[in-house]
């Protein structure tokens, strides 16, 4: 299958993926105790997506080198999950994460190009997909087979620039893009379905622009895996992943305040307890 | 200038397969058509979508390519400003944003098509470099330089068509250095871009009065050649700045600042576009005159 070239060979194990995501959520919680704010809700909603990209889909480089594939975090405010995975992969150090948002450190609340593993600076929404199109063009121009992965927020899809890039990806007949929408139905302070009812159906809009579209459960590693490995490879792929903002911690789920806030000590303890009791 | 830009870019593209041009709904005339035919995979027309034009150029550069983004100046810089700032300047990528027909060249099209404050806007962004060639030959030199440089983003402010050659026997073009097109000792005219033709006319008139006149192309507007400007202020009795740009943030304002810093004693006269949208729909020269820029007015005020 054409789509299989986008993945590591036969490595998928849903239990292992679940264990990794639990570990990553726990690590983010630990980091939250050193800062007042860290976009925890948006990081938790795309945890399984970003985990799948890094740990299932992107191919390892030769001799431990850089992957031929690229991940660009378009929803830059979700970068906490990226940081903890990059730490897990040894590209960022514990010291890097411990110094998050401090004058001694190099990591902030949005990805900064030049830091290890960070392929583009994002944070302002609606920039990522155009850069992804440019990267995919460069891969095609050089005759290399790198796949460009990206994660957009659903709020970000309101940006006109996202639709400009959506149109260009198919006009240029690019096939080496795998994009996810972290469809948690929230902008920073409200439900997208309430503020923008015309936003849905979302997948149909991308289909109308010529993308291959598949919907999946964004917290189910198997659903994500099948969505990507089932791609035809003849069009750019948009995975509309249904997610829950703040997923994994009951009091954070679908509560706008947790877009940005850090839990206090009691909230932290409860969150840890909840994570530990999850399967 | 747009044709010489296209020709120079085409020549560079034949030598370097990492050169791409991403354009926004602009007709590929002259050598741009050759580029399109010969390298269709490296000529990307995004249509009327300037934000993605800049973003795609950034993505290409992030993968090591040497892209140019090209359209009419207002649309290459103003419309996608945040993409220019964040994608190009914040990431410090070697992308050349070409602003074609800058200033008030699109005279009859109204204020939406005039680029009166682009030097100030682009110059305020960290990492941005700005080049504004004064004639087709400088445009060729600048384009060749942009095709090779890896410092970071460049805003290349060019004219449109019909600009006369003013630099045929001038000293070599060098990025970041002011360029004397004529050397004199009484009056020094500092200028850049298409309006250099008017500055040359002023220089001719002053010379006809018996004055010894320097005419300088300040083609690199960022980083500005501060030492070069200081030299011009110190070696001439009078310095005249003529620019097709708003009074704020351009060559006039920066020259005044330098003159203040060094306590210059030379006379300094500046002539700029007004800080205003002028609702005049005449020729390019009519627009400049409506802003107060004409050879006669400059001579009357500074001659």
From TrEMBL, chain A:
Family per similarity comment: Belongs to the transketolase family.
Name of the molecule in the record: Transketolase
CDD domains reported in the protein's UniProt record: TPP_TK
Keywords for the protein's UniProt record, in alphabetical order: Thiamine pyrophosphate
Keyword Signal attributed: no
Origin: domain of life: Bacteria
Cofactor: thiamine diphosphate
Pfam families: Transketolase_N
Membrane-spanning ranges: none
Record-linked PANTHER family: TRANSKETOLASE N-TERMINAL SECTION-RELATED
Gene3D superfamilies the UniProt entry points to: 3.40.50.970
Domain Transketolase N-terminal: 25-270
From TrEMBL, chain B:
SMART domains in the cross-refs: Transket_pyr
Residues of the Transketolase-like pyrimidine-binding domain: 1-165
Keyword Electron transport attached: no
Gene3D superfamilies (UniProt xref): 3.40.50.920, 3.40.50.970
Superkingdom of origin: Bacteria
Family recorded in the similarity comment: Belongs to the transketolase family.
Protein name: Transketolase
Lineage of origin: Bacteria, Pseudomonadati, Pseudomonadota, Alphaproteobacteria, Hyphomicrobiales
